Amino acid sequence: MKNSILQTGNSKPAIRIGYGFDSHEFRPGIPLRIGGVALAHDKGLGGHSDGDVLLHAIADALLGAIAAPDIGALFPPSDPKWKGADSVIFLREALKRVRDAGYGVANMDASLILAAPKIGPHAAAIRVRVAELLGVHGDCVGLKAKTPEGLHTENAALAHVVVLLEKLESPEKPRKRQTGKPRRSRL
Ligand SMILES: [Zn+2]
Protein backbone atom coordinates (compact mmCIF):
# COMPACT_ATOMS: atom_id res chain seq x y z
CA MET A 1 0.00 0.00 0.00
CA LYS A 2 1.51 3.28 -1.08
CA ASN A 3 1.42 6.22 1.25
CA SER A 4 -0.91 4.26 3.48
CA ILE A 5 -2.21 5.64 6.74
CA LEU A 6 -1.56 2.16 8.09
CA GLN A 7 2.16 2.67 7.74
CA THR A 8 4.09 3.56 10.82
CA GLY A 9 7.23 5.61 10.86
CA ASN A 10 8.15 9.21 11.40
CA SER A 11 4.74 10.62 10.62
CA LYS A 12 3.24 10.08 14.04
CA PRO A 13 0.22 12.25 14.66
CA ALA A 14 0.55 14.60 17.64
CA ILE A 15 -2.71 13.29 19.09
CA ARG A 16 -4.61 10.04 18.72
CA ILE A 17 -8.10 9.08 19.85
CA GLY A 18 -9.15 5.64 21.05
CA TYR A 19 -12.53 4.09 21.72
CA GLY A 20 -13.33 1.04 23.83
CA PHE A 21 -16.51 -0.83 24.63
CA ASP A 22 -17.14 -3.74 26.96
CA SER A 23 -20.02 -5.53 28.65
CA HIS A 24 -20.32 -8.19 31.32
CA GLU A 25 -23.25 -10.02 32.84
CA PHE A 26 -24.00 -9.84 36.55
CA ARG A 27 -23.73 -13.07 38.50
CA PRO A 28 -24.72 -13.58 42.11
CA GLY A 29 -22.18 -14.17 44.82
CA ILE A 30 -19.03 -12.82 43.18
CA PRO A 31 -17.21 -9.57 44.02
CA LEU A 32 -18.00 -6.47 41.96
CA ARG A 33 -15.08 -4.40 40.71
CA ILE A 34 -15.54 -1.35 38.53
CA GLY A 35 -12.64 0.91 37.63
CA GLY A 36 -10.34 -0.99 39.97
CA VAL A 37 -12.60 -0.27 42.95
CA ALA A 38 -14.47 -2.94 44.92
CA LEU A 39 -18.16 -2.01 45.24
CA ALA A 40 -20.49 -3.56 47.78
CA HIS A 41 -23.22 -5.40 45.86
CA ASP A 42 -24.92 -8.79 45.93
CA LYS A 43 -23.72 -9.54 42.39
CA GLY A 44 -20.48 -9.18 40.52
CA LEU A 45 -19.53 -9.20 36.86
CA GLY A 46 -18.73 -12.61 35.46
CA GLY A 47 -16.59 -13.64 32.55
CA HIS A 48 -13.03 -12.98 31.61
CA SER A 49 -10.76 -12.12 34.56
CA ASP A 50 -12.35 -10.17 37.43
CA GLY A 51 -14.95 -8.75 35.01
CA ASP A 52 -13.95 -5.13 35.51
CA VAL A 53 -15.95 -3.76 32.62
CA LEU A 54 -14.58 -0.23 32.93
CA LEU A 55 -10.90 -1.18 33.02
CA HIS A 56 -11.43 -3.47 30.04
CA ALA A 57 -13.04 -0.68 28.01
CA ILE A 58 -10.25 1.73 28.99
CA ALA A 59 -7.57 -0.82 28.03
CA ASP A 60 -9.26 -1.38 24.67
CA ALA A 61 -9.53 2.37 24.08
CA LEU A 62 -5.80 2.75 24.79
CA LEU A 63 -4.92 -0.15 22.53
CA GLY A 64 -7.27 1.07 19.83
CA ALA A 65 -5.68 4.51 19.87
CA ILE A 66 -2.37 2.99 18.81
CA ALA A 67 -4.00 0.39 16.55
CA ALA A 68 -2.70 -2.46 18.72
CA PRO A 69 -4.52 -5.80 19.22
CA ASP A 70 -7.36 -5.62 21.75
CA ILE A 71 -7.32 -7.22 25.20
CA GLY A 72 -9.26 -10.24 23.93
CA ALA A 73 -6.32 -10.94 21.61
CA LEU A 74 -3.60 -10.12 24.15
CA PHE A 75 -5.23 -11.95 27.05
CA PRO A 76 -7.48 -14.65 25.54
CA PRO A 77 -10.41 -15.63 27.80
CA SER A 78 -9.71 -19.23 26.75
CA ASP A 79 -6.38 -19.06 28.61
CA PRO A 80 -7.00 -20.24 32.20
CA LYS A 81 -4.11 -18.00 33.26
CA TRP A 82 -6.42 -14.97 33.06
CA LYS A 83 -9.35 -16.50 34.92
CA GLY A 84 -10.08 -14.23 37.84
CA ALA A 85 -7.07 -12.03 36.98
CA ASP A 86 -6.84 -8.48 38.27
CA SER A 87 -7.77 -6.31 35.29
CA VAL A 88 -5.18 -3.77 36.36
CA ILE A 89 -2.71 -6.14 34.65
CA PHE A 90 -4.47 -5.57 31.32
CA LEU A 91 -4.56 -1.82 31.80
CA ARG A 92 -0.86 -1.70 32.66
CA GLU A 93 0.01 -3.69 29.55
CA ALA A 94 -2.08 -1.35 27.40
CA LEU A 95 -0.38 1.68 28.97
CA LYS A 96 3.04 0.16 28.43
CA ARG A 97 2.24 -0.30 24.75
CA VAL A 98 0.98 3.28 24.52
CA ARG A 99 4.22 4.57 26.04
CA ASP A 100 6.33 2.28 23.87
CA ALA A 101 4.54 3.77 20.88
CA GLY A 102 5.65 7.21 22.09
CA TYR A 103 2.39 8.48 23.54
CA GLY A 104 0.98 9.53 26.89
CA VAL A 105 -2.63 9.83 28.04
CA ALA A 106 -4.12 13.32 27.85
CA ASN A 107 -7.60 12.54 29.13
CA MET A 108 -10.38 9.99 29.01
CA ASP A 109 -14.12 9.93 29.29
CA ALA A 110 -16.41 7.03 30.13
CA SER A 111 -20.09 6.18 30.23
CA LEU A 112 -21.20 3.26 32.36
CA ILE A 113 -24.64 1.79 31.75
CA LEU A 114 -26.05 -0.35 34.52
CA ALA A 115 -29.23 -0.66 36.54
CA ALA A 116 -27.50 -1.21 39.90
CA PRO A 117 -25.65 -0.43 42.05
CA LYS A 118 -25.79 3.35 41.85
CA ILE A 119 -22.42 4.64 40.72
CA GLY A 120 -22.86 8.20 42.01
CA PRO A 121 -21.65 7.47 45.56
CA HIS A 122 -18.57 5.67 44.16
CA ALA A 123 -17.80 7.92 41.20
CA ALA A 124 -15.16 9.99 42.99
CA ALA A 125 -13.30 6.89 44.22
CA ILE A 126 -13.42 5.32 40.75
CA ARG A 127 -12.14 8.51 39.09
CA VAL A 128 -9.30 8.78 41.60
CA ARG A 129 -8.29 5.15 41.09
CA VAL A 130 -8.48 5.35 37.28
CA ALA A 131 -6.52 8.62 37.27
CA GLU A 132 -3.87 6.99 39.44
CA LEU A 133 -3.65 3.99 37.11
CA LEU A 134 -3.42 6.19 34.02
CA GLY A 135 -1.00 8.65 35.62
CA VAL A 136 -3.23 11.67 34.91
CA HIS A 137 -4.97 14.25 37.07
CA GLY A 138 -8.41 13.38 38.39
CA ASP A 139 -9.97 16.14 36.30
CA CYS A 140 -8.75 14.29 33.19
CA VAL A 141 -11.02 11.33 33.97
CA GLY A 142 -14.67 11.77 33.07
CA LEU A 143 -17.23 9.28 34.35
CA LYS A 144 -20.95 9.24 33.76
CA ALA A 145 -23.36 6.54 34.81
CA LYS A 146 -26.66 5.84 33.15
CA THR A 147 -29.45 3.36 33.70
CA PRO A 148 -30.24 1.09 30.74
CA GLU A 149 -33.48 2.77 29.66
CA GLY A 150 -35.05 0.70 26.93
CA LEU A 151 -31.96 -1.44 26.45
CA HIS A 152 -33.19 -4.50 28.38
CA THR A 153 -29.71 -5.02 29.79
CA GLU A 154 -30.72 -4.84 33.48
CA ASN A 155 -28.50 -7.81 34.32
CA ALA A 156 -25.40 -6.43 32.61
CA ALA A 157 -22.94 -3.59 32.92
CA LEU A 158 -21.78 -1.81 29.79
CA ALA A 159 -18.91 0.64 29.43
CA HIS A 160 -18.03 3.02 26.63
CA VAL A 161 -14.70 4.86 26.83
CA VAL A 162 -12.81 7.36 24.72
CA VAL A 163 -9.21 8.32 25.38
CA LEU A 164 -7.02 10.99 23.90
CA LEU A 165 -3.30 10.35 23.58
CA GLU A 166 -0.62 12.93 22.96
CA LYS A 167 2.81 12.36 21.53
CA LEU A 168 5.54 12.34 24.14
CA GLU A 169 8.32 14.86 23.75
CA SER A 170 11.30 12.63 24.37
CA PRO A 171 13.51 12.52 21.29
CA GLU A 172 16.55 11.96 23.52
CA LYS A 173 15.14 8.69 24.80
CA PRO A 174 14.65 6.32 21.88
CA ARG A 175 12.43 3.39 22.73
CA LYS A 176 14.69 0.83 21.19
CA ARG A 177 18.39 0.79 20.73
CA GLN A 178 19.10 1.85 17.20
CA THR A 179 21.12 -0.59 15.21
CA GLY A 180 24.30 0.61 13.58
CA LYS A 181 24.83 3.42 16.05
CA PRO A 182 26.86 2.25 19.03
CA ARG A 183 25.71 3.74 22.28
CA ARG A 184 28.15 5.81 24.20
CA SER A 185 28.90 3.85 27.29
CA ARG A 186 28.58 5.52 30.64
CA LEU A 187 31.93 5.68 32.39
ZN1 LIG B 1 -14.40 -7.41 29.72
SSE arrangement:
Blueprint lengths: L14 E14 L3 E3 L2 E3 L3 E3 L7 H13 L5 H4 L13 H13 L2 E11 L6 H15 L6 E6 L9 E12 L20
Parallel strand pairs: 5-6
Antiparallel strand pairs: 1-4, 1-7, 2-3, 5-7
Helix pairs in contact: 1-3
Zinc ion binds next to β1 and α1.
How would you portray this structure in words?
By secondary structure, the protein is of the alpha+beta class. It has one domain: 60s Ribosomal Protein L30, Chain: A. It contains 4 helices and 7 strands, in the order E-E-E-E-H-H-H-E-H-E-E. The strands form 2 sheets. The chain has a 5-stranded mixed beta sheet. A two-stranded antiparallel ribbon has the order 2-3. Helix 4 links the parallel strand 5 and strand 6 (141-146). The longest helix is centred in the C-terminal third of the chain and has 15 residues, at 120-134. It is globular. The termini are far apart. The mean pLDDT is 90. Bound molecules: zinc ion. Zinc ion binds at residues 22, 24, 48, 53, 56.
- Coarse morphology: globular
Supply the CATH architecture: 2-Layer Sandwich
The name of the CATH superfamily reads: 2-C-methyl-D-erythritol 2,4-cyclodiphosphate synthase
- Total count of helical runs of at least 4 residues: 4
Residue-averaged pLDDT = 90
Coarse structural class: alpha+beta
Main sheet makeup: 5 strands, mixed
Q: Report the strand count.
A: 7
Radius of gyration (Å): 19 Å
Order of helices and strands: EEEEHHHEHEE
Q: In CATH's first tier, which class applies? A: Alpha Beta
Q: How far is it from the N-terminal to the C-terminal residue, by CA?
A: 46 Å
Low-confidence stretches: none
The portion of residues forming beta strands comes to 25-35%
Looking at CATH, which topology would you report?
Answer: 60s Ribosomal Protein L30, Chain: A
Q: Name every ligand kind in the structure.
A: zinc ion
Assign a percent range to the helix content.
Answer: 10-25%
Number of domains: 1
